Amino acid sequence: MNKSDGFAHTGDADMATWAESAAMWTVLNVTERLAPTDYGLMPRV
Question: What's the whole-model pTM score?
Answer without folding.
Answer: 0.44
